[in-house]
Amino acid sequence: MIMHPIEDYALIGDLQTAALVCRDGTIDWLCLPRFDSQAVFAGLLGSDEHGRWRLGPVVDDACPANATRRTYRGDTLILESEWDTATGTVRVTDFMPLGEGTPQVTRIVEGIDGIVPMRSDVHMRFGYGQVEPWVRCVEGWTVAVAGPDSMWLKSTFASPADGEQTCMEFTVRQGERIAFTLAWYPSHQGPPQTGDPQETLQATDAFWRCWASRCMYDGPHRAAVIRSLITLKALTYAPTGAIVAAPTTSLPEDIGGVRNWDYRFTWLRDAAITLSALLRTGYLDEARAWREWLLRAVAGDPDNLQIMYGIGGERTLTEMELPWLPGYEKSAPVRIGNKAAGQLQLDVYGEVVEALYLAHRAGLDDDSAHHLQLRLIETLERRWQEPDEGIWEVRGPRRHFVHSKVMAWVAVDRTVQLIESGDVDGPLDRWRDLRDEIHRTVCEKGYDPQRNTFTQYYDDSGPSTELDASLLLIPQTDFLPWNDKRVVGTIEAIQRELSTPDGFILRYPTVGHDAGVDGLPGDEGAFLACSFWLADALVMTGRVDRARCLFGKLLALRNDLGLLAEEWDPRLQRQVGNFPQAFSHLSLVETALRIEGLLPFPQPRQADELRVGEQVIVS
């Protein structure tokens, strides 16, 4: 099996789960019935024997032909791939119908010109490619059963079961359409109820176009913003309102390495930026659903705030390895679950409180949200001086990460502002003092005056020598004014020390720098969200032309369908990490708004307003 670059894949989904469709017409990844369910097609992390559905013109089995062209149909999540062959042209339309009750994939083959020989070859494996199902024919369906799960396949062209897989060859002529439907259903029930393929296609098209039309952004980057918002919507689990970080697991940050993680969960870190992006682009219902999920997930035990939860609010996300899967391009181990859920990351208190504060300002709050916010600050008041694993979920020793302390300050500051507004009661003077203490500690211990920059962490000996791209968020949080010399110095230091040759930003140094900070061997690419943060920082410090240039370079990294993974490998010149990544697309939306002046940012405040008695110096 030939491994394709990550950017060769397209996303289709039904707001319950999602599939990745390769440029050659193969679905190599699909978890059913939910994003976090076991994969029935896991070829992306192994080979054909681990499950896939290949549909395209008949060519040499060892080398399926890539589509001549492909696109999403307008502002939808309907994928159209076309092949020009020696005998004609054929189009395959891939989508997942919404609201059909059971998750299903529909693939419609349409003859555009001439006569084209085609093959559909479905190789189903349950349990991430480990479990071989029992395949049989039932009432016109080809059914694959294993334990509690079953897959039901039928088409408008008869398709007999052939051992452990279903394979059929047929020809399509100009004007002909042949449709395939693959549906998941509990194995003790069936057959599933599925709609007419053409009717569900029309309904799916109407849903996405209507949803996209609600976007209030109408700037020069509208196409990129719309595609990112559609991607974010596609990563939403509609029954609860949760948004997964990505629909995949273990796509490597370092090709051939061990930095392979499961992202099919919901990170609280995304809370504030998600709410901001949705509110500012007109998606109030989605913002409300996201906030409600956040309250349900956190409210059960705010004293033990986790950094991530399952899409239903599950707390137990046990991490384990799947040794039968060799991994994408032999990047092992393949992991499911994520033990980082048990880490202490103090920054999430700031992100959650900031999200609640944004919701309050948008009129989306209630007394339960205020009660939760106060409980979170009570916990943070006790714990903010502890070391933690930080924003990047390092698997090395806990440290006093500067970004974590800044976000602890954000949590207290927003709560102080809420109390000052009179909308909630709380110990105002005590928490004002707490806010000042955190601010003073960060400025005294986390800032290197010799280099004029904040650093990644501090300890008893002072600030570390290493930098961290999360420090770019300092001016966005209002911790210091964007024109403070320490902010400007930090931005410039990160550009010098964490930039790749092509101008993108690493999260922090890995190989050969402060070994042991993240506790992992190997290297990684440029983290795309960090590069968007740099563009934001450039805008805020008045360097808008440079910000536009960087933003243009970031847009150029998207694949032909406008999708971004987590990282960009500057050595291999390709996308790496889980795909598509919500954080990357959220950051794209925020930067597009900020560059066009549609996203307000904190204005410089006087020193007395900062309550730290430090001079603001304009660069």
What does this 3D model show about the protein?
- With 619 residues, this protein is α+β, with helices and mostly antiparallel strands.
- The chain has two domains: 6-189 and 196-212, Beta-galactosidase, Chain A, domain 5; 214-610, Alpha/alpha barrel (Glycosyltransferase).
- The protein is 30% helix and 21% strand.
- The chain has 14 helices and 29 strands.
- It has a 15-stranded antiparallel sheet that branches. A three-stranded antiparallel sheet has the order 22-25-26.
- A hairpin with an 8-residue loop joins strand 8 and strand 9 (104-123).
- Helix 5 (347-361) runs antiparallel to helix 6 (367-383) and helix 11 (528-540) packs parallel to helix 13.
- Mean pLDDT is 91; it is low at 160-164 and 605-619.
Short description:
With 619 residues, the protein is α+β, with helices and mostly antiparallel strands. It is built from 14 helices and 29 strands.
Structural class: alpha+beta
Mean pLDDT: 91
* Tertiary shape: globular
Tell me what portion of residues adopts beta-strand conformation.
15-25%
The CATH topology of the largest domain is given as: Glycosyltransferase
Instruction: Tell me the major beta sheet.
Output: 15 strands, antiparallel
Span of the ends, CA to CA: 56 Å
Kindly give the count of domains.
2
Catalogue the unreliable spans: 160-164, 605-619
Helix fraction, binned, reads 25-40%
Radius of gyration: 25 Å
Total helices: the number is 14
Find the count of extended strands (DSSP E, 2+ residues): 29
List keywords for this structure.
disordered C terminus; three-stranded antiparallel beta sheet; 14 helices; alpha+beta; 21% strand; 15-stranded antiparallel beta sheet; Glycosyltransferase; 619 residues; Beta-galactosidase, Chain A, domain 5; 2 domains; globular
